[in-house]
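Please fill in the sequence for the structure shown.

STRUCTURE ENCODING:
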């Protein structure tokens, strides 16, 4: 048996077979018992079709339909099918965020500023929502796994694949193509996660068995990351950055967003005190966190608020993913106190170290390209500097890029210390990275200098990336 096995709750199954995606497609609609809830969800998106607007378009139009929904807490108590529970969690998450954040959205339409949200969730919604959250063992707020992203897709052509152009959202807020493209691209990238998880598990298994030839698994990991970065760049096409504000407000969390929610949200009939949970964010995705643990970037994380936040976000994932991360982390330390890099160096395995360097370069590309997303989709669009997950976005993300560069420099030095490999592919990765590391250094130093200036601008970050040849839009 593999040393990493059994990370499943029946809906997700972190494995070489499913990666981070659900074991099968999520339910599109709720069972008939919940038709009143389903009807409100269907009528809710700002735009329903080319001719009609939905409830969220008109101020307060959502209130009466929400209050009229039956309190389904007893029916939910009896549910045992994880796919039904997931669809219920997704449905109540969407309903709660839409109901609470609708006034903020209306204010935004008037003057471009997020207005105060409602902060009381009525009993008929709060009780069943918290019941289903309890059954899934997650916080009662829209999350990335069960609700907004990975558990929210449906194929348009059943025989097609999970390319973002062939999938749409089961539940929506804005109902416009930019929202669909934005979040479905996350699913698209994750369709390669089975190969990535597989390569991680194979490497770990081999090293734990005392085998030395792990280069083929690391090559697979590197190739998969390259593919993921190619798909990631599709974001510029899948969702126009100028339209990010059409739906951004609805995915805000409560924690960190006191301007919108004050002390928090009161869940009537559940808790006496208001609660503040974090909002859904791509930072709840599993690819980069797994790669950070596997490659050893976590040893280089800076001590700052983003690092604390990333660790806090581990709690905002399904329990099976949390267990996977924590077992992976201790297994990597079990392989060597300094993780993968330490073990490969002990083995004098220059070829594998080159693939590790290639993997780190892809993590770098992911983060540097992602920083450019943050510039255009958020910074160029709004003065509201708090991200949906509740973080002050401007200053933290680039520090994580610096951690990757630090590790790349150490891996390059490790290869130099034992001698470059003869393998042509591995050698080409090494040589390319040796020549480009100073460029990456120059670029990150320039980007960090920019964010410390008072007149910070997204355009300046883009110009700098262009100058160094790393413009993500190309
Ligand atoms: C237009 C596209 C995107 C925007 C505007 C965006 C925005 C952000 C923001 C603002 C953060 C800071 C944390 C927070 O949410 O509070 C963040 C973090 C993060 N996002 Fe995204 N994101 C985008 C696409 C993606 C995609 C496609 C993925 C992966 C599939 C992803 C994965 C992550 C990760 C892993 C972090 C944690 C920071 C790190 O480890 O470097 N994001 N994102």
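FILLED IN BY: designer on duty
SEQUENCE:
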């Amino acid at each position: 048996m593999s040393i990493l096995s059994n990370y499943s709750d029946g809906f997700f199954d972190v494995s070489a077979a499913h990666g981070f995606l659900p074991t099968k497609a999520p339910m599109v609609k709720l069972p008939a018992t919940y038709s009143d809830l389903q009807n409100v969800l269907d009528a809710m998106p700002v735009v329903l079709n080319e001719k009609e607007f939905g409830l969220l378009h008109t101020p307060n139009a959502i209130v009466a339909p929400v209050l009229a929904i039956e309190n389904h807490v007893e029916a939910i108590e009896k549910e045992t099918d994880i796919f039904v529970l997931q669809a219920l969690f997704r449905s109540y998450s969407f309903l709660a965020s839409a109901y609470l954040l609708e006034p903020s959205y209306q204010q935004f339409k008037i003057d471009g500023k997020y207005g105060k949200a409602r902060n009381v969730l009525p009993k008929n919604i709060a009780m069943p929502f918290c019941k289903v959250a309890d059954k899934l063992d997650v916080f009662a707020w829209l999350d990335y796994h069960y609700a907004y992203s990975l558990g929210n897709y449906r194929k348009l052509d059943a025989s097609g694949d999970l390319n973002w152009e062939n999938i749409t959202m089961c539940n929506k807020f804005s109902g416009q193509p930019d929202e669909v493209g934005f979040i479905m691209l996350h699913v698209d990238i994750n369709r390669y996660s089975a190969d990535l998880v597989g390569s991680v598990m194979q490497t770990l298994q081999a090293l734990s068995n005392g085998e030395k030839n792990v280069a083929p698994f690391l090559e697979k990991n590197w190739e998969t990351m390259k593919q993921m970065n190619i798909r990631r760049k599709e974001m510029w096409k899948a969702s126009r950055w100028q339209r990010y504000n059409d739906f951004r407000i609805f995915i805000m969390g409560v924690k960190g967003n006191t301007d919108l929610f004050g002390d928090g949200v009161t869940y009537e009939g559940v808790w006496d005190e208001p609660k503040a949970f974090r909002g859904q964010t791509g930072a709840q995705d599993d690819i980069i966190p797994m790669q950070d643990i596997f490659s050893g970037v976590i040893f280089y994380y800076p001590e700052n608020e983003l690092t604390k936040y990333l660790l806090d976000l581990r709690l905002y994932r399904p329990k099976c993913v949390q267990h996977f991360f924590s077992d992976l982390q201790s297994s990597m330390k079990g392989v060597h106190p300094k993780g993968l890099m330490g073990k490969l160096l002990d083995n004098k395995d220059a070829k594998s170290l080159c693939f590790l360097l290639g993997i780190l370069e892809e993590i770098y590309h992911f983060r540097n390209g992602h920083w450019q997303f943050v510039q255009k989709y958020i910074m160029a669009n709004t003065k509201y500097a708090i991200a949906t997950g509740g973080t002050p976005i401007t200053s933290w993300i680039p520090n994580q890029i610096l951690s990757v560069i630090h590790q790349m420099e150490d891996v390059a030095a490790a290869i130099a210390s034992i001698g470059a490999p003869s393998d042509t592919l591995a050698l080409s990765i090494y040589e390319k990275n040796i020549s480009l590391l100073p460029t990456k250094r120059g670029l990150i130093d320039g980007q960090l200098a920019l964010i410390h200036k008072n007149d910070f601008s997204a355009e300046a970050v883009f110009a700098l990336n262009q100058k160094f040849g790393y413009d993500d839009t190309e």
